[in-house]
Design goal:
Elements: H1 4-17, E1 20-25, E2 29-31, E3 42-44, E4 47-51, H2 55-68, E5 94-95, E6 100-101, H3 110-119
Antiparallel strand pairs: 1-4, 2-3, 5-6
């Protein structure tokens, strides 16, 4: 929602200000929304970052940033100004009610795979 490219730039700035050092950002990729809800196309991208935050604390900080940017969860796959997911965290594997690493949809979503491989060309997605 809103100014999509600016939302991405603003999210990167907020990540950098909150203990998440963004080191690479993919080119944006425009895609149709999934989930059957009529809405504008999405602008997707992937970034690499370094942090001393644990995965749980990283997720918490990401949710705060999403809220600061105006995200309100009221409709699954509905319109939103920003959606930040943790795809990978080093080689960690985590499966809880709130956090799955690696993200279970990486292989299924071209709009995730393409930008991910752009910033990490030799990455093997298992």
């Amino acid at each position: 929602m809103g100014h999509r490219r600016q939302n991405i730039d603003d999210a990167v700035k907020l990540l950098n200000k909150n203990g998440i050092n963004v080191t690479k950002v993919s080119n944006p990729l425009e895609t149709k929304p999934i989930g059957g809800i009529a809405q504008a196309h999405f602008l997707n991208g992937v970034l690499a970052a370094e942090t001393k935050l644990t995965p749980k604390k990283l997720l918490h900080q990401i949710k705060i940033i999403e809220q600061q940017m105006g995200r309100v969860k009221y409709l699954k796959n509905g319109p939103r100004p920003i959606d930040i997911d943790i795809l990978l965290y080093g080689n960690l594997k985590i499966k809880t009610d709130n956090l799955n690493i690696p993200h279970p949809e990486i292989k299924k979503r071209k709009f995730v795979r393409e930008p991910l491989l752009q910033i990490a060309p030799g990455l093997k997605i298992s």
